[in-house]
Each structure stands twice: as C-alpha cells, then as structure tokens.
Amino acid sequence: xxxxxxxxxxxxxxxxxxxxxxxxxxxxxxxxxxxxxxxxxxxxxxxxxxxxxxxxxxxxxxxxxxxxxxxxxxxxxxxxxxxxxxxxxxxxxxxxxxxxxxxxxxxxxxxxxxxxxxxxxxxxxxxxxxxxxxxxxxxxxxx
Length: 143
Hints:
Blueprint: H1 2-14, H2 21-32, H3 39-49, H4 55-67, E1 71-74, E2 82-85, E3 93-97, E4 103-106, H5 109-121, E5 132-135, H6 138-142
Parallel strand pairs: 3-5
Antiparallel strand pairs: 1-2, 3-4
Helix pairs in contact: 1-2, 2-3, 2-4, 3-4
C-alpha cells in the first residue's frame, strides 16, 4: 500500500497540487478495501477515523487515483460509479446481479484466449477490455 500512496503523491506533485493528509487518508482506506466501493461508502469509512474529511475530498481523491492509473471507475449500468483498485496483473471480469446489485469478479483464461483470437482475426491489438455479464445471482434467482 505504501508504494501506491507514494505513486499517488508523485502524481499529485507532478500536477502541481498539494499532497495532503486528507488525500492520503482517503487513499489508505481505498487501498485497504477489497472489491468495489462507491464514493459514498468510502466517505463513510474514512469519516470514522477522520471526521473532518468531506465527501468532496473523497470524490476529488478518487478522481486523482483514477487519473494516476491507480483506480478504475466502473458503472455497471448504474448512474453512480463504483471504484476498484487498478492492477494490471490481476485482470478480471464481472458478473452483476440486476436485482440485488451483487458483483462477482471472475477470471477465465479460456475467455481471454478467445477474445485475443477474435481480435487477431480482425487485425486488432487489444490494449484494454472489460466484460460485464448481467443477470440474477444464485440467491435472487431462487427467490
């Protein structure tokens, strides 16, 4: 986590902005999270230990994390985004329940190979992609 915070601080300094304890606090909580988190959820978690931090600071820090390539915003068909840590070594895709909102991350090598094969056949070099499958999770489909 310390490396990611240092990367963020370098990016902030390069943009001519101030490295602040508030931004570092938001980043620390974000990097400690597993999975996806909304700005509001992140704010609630950060506010427990840093009550002076505002929601605007959380949004601005998430924007900086995204611009720095340390986070990625996902919308999953919703107007409000959720954020996840960007990790080039850990590409994954998503299953999203349209009833309860549950998000399941998965990695399937055969799908990745198939996508690369399709891209090759059409003369494309894949630089990034995402797969989102929408439906009902086990709990919702049996309810």
